[in-house]
């Protein structure tokens, strides 16, 4: 989640707003040849190659923040910011299980009656509403 900590906290931001990424007139991203690539202490790059190549270099979904006035495009089973717009608008994290439930209209006073992994599946598919209890 180190990459998400560096995504600016404003509407429409994603990995494209990080230093070292250029966006061409054709909307394709490329590495800035005048900047050295940034690596984390772990040795992994701050911006993974898959973010740059996702959807033929044109995607703005990797590590993107959803803003307060935007509609969530989809709630996914695997809450990873690698290819979905699921970063919290003001905090450096993905949405919680409870926030994902709220996005789908499930009231806050309902409680999930399953293990965390099953809760995520129930929220993302939203067909098992009987697993929620008021």
TrEMBL record:
<dbReference type="GO" id="GO:0003886">
    <property type="term" value="F:DNA (cytosine-5-)-methyltransferase activity"/>
</dbReference>
<dbReference type="InterPro" id="IPR050390">
    <property type="entry name" value="C5-Methyltransferase"/>
</dbReference>
<dbReference type="GO" id="GO:0044027">
    <property type="term" value="P:negative regulation of gene expression via chromosomal CpG island methylation"/>
</dbReference>
<dbReference type="InterPro" id="IPR029063">
    <property type="entry name" value="SAM-dependent_MTases_sf"/>
</dbReference>
<dbReference type="GO" id="GO:0003677">
    <property type="term" value="F:DNA binding"/>
</dbReference>
<dbReference type="GO" id="GO:0005634">
    <property type="term" value="C:nucleus"/>
</dbReference>
<protein>
    <submittedName>
        <fullName>Uncharacterized protein</fullName>
    </submittedName>
</protein>
